[in-house]
Every structure is written in C-alpha cells, then in structure tokens.
Amino acid sequence: MNYDIKQIDEGLALPLIEDFYSLQGEGVNTGKAAYFIRLGGCDIGCSWCDTKFSWNADFHKLTQTIDIVEKASGFPAKAIVVTGGEPTCYNLEVLCTELKKRNIQTFLETSGVYKLTGSWDWICLSPKQHNPPLAEFFPIANELKVIINNTNDFEWAETNRKKVSPECKLLLQPEWSAYNKIIHDVVDYIKNNPDWVISLQAHKFMKIP
Hints:
- By secondary structure, the protein is α/β, with parallel strands linked by helices.
- The chain has a single domain, classed as Aldolase class I (TIM Barrel, Alpha-Beta Barrel), CATH 3.20.20.
- The chain has 6 helices and 9 strands; from the N terminus they run αβββαβαβββαβαβα.
- Helix 2 runs parallel beside helix 3.
C-alpha cells in the first residue's frame, strides 16, 4: 500500500485497523463504555501478542483523522481508547486536538517506546522487557499494567513500579494464552504484595470485542 507519508507525519491520516464501540475489557477502567481506535503498526514483536495482525501498518487502510474523529463522536460514551499495534508510532496531535474540541476524553494504551504526542486524560503504560519504555512515560503514567507470562515477569513488574509516580495504579495481568498456567501465581503474588491489583481480560471472558 502506498501511504502518503506527509499526511501521516502531520497526523492528518492514520493506518486504521478497526474502530468500534464496546466496553473497556482490562485495566483500571474495566467495564466502562468507550470507543476504540486500533492503529496498525508495531515493531516490538511480543511473542504472545494477541493482535499480530496489527504489526504491519501497510496492511491497514490509511484513514483521514477527521473522519475517525467524526465517527467516534457519534456514540454516547465520550471516551476514546487509542490502541494498536503501538499507537505512539504516529503523530497523534491532530487526533487528540479534534477529540478535545468535542469534549471527548482520551485514553492511550502504549508500551512507551516512542515519543509521546497528543493530549491524554489517561495513559496506560504496559512495558515490555525486550523493548523498555522511554523514561518520559514513567512520571506521567496513570496506570502501570504489566503482562505476566511467567514468574520472571514479577521482577520486571517491580523494576517498573520503582519508576512510576506514587499515584500510578499498579496492575498485573495474566497473559491470555498462559492464563491457566499463571493465574494462581499472580493471585498469590498480589496477596503477598497488595499494592498490586489484578487485571483480567474481561472482554475475552464475555466474548465481546
């Protein structure tokens, strides 16, 4: 697909995988209605990623940012979750500016590996060991959500915990494909370290998008 690089660089168009209205399925805001914008493109390469179809941005339609915003603004919940892929691959200034003009709250799901653009009401930082976040994300993260695939990930969680602000919410989320193997370890860890809270992928249990 031949992309207009200038439009992407200026944030006027974005590679859109899908956009849909649903309930937040994980993290602090689980259960709240929101409109989801999933952007294509990610070079982090987590082996357990459940959205590998998102990795190659060339596979996804380049969509005018204003069209994304106009569609999103037509739903009752004035909350937008931008996810991916890795959404910070792109200039999100225009997206956030136009959403703010419409009094829509902005929520970002990111691994924190690229420079932040845009204005965000809530930042969920989900750090990956093989490609750690930029330092700038730790003091501004509202939520630290660490995916637990094996027991070694608890040490990674604590490493990141030391870097976020005292106000940041701390969540451990069992990796979906390892859920049955790891859930009891996560529960025991939180019982012994109660500053952490469990995050379950409720949308998968409920079988909703």
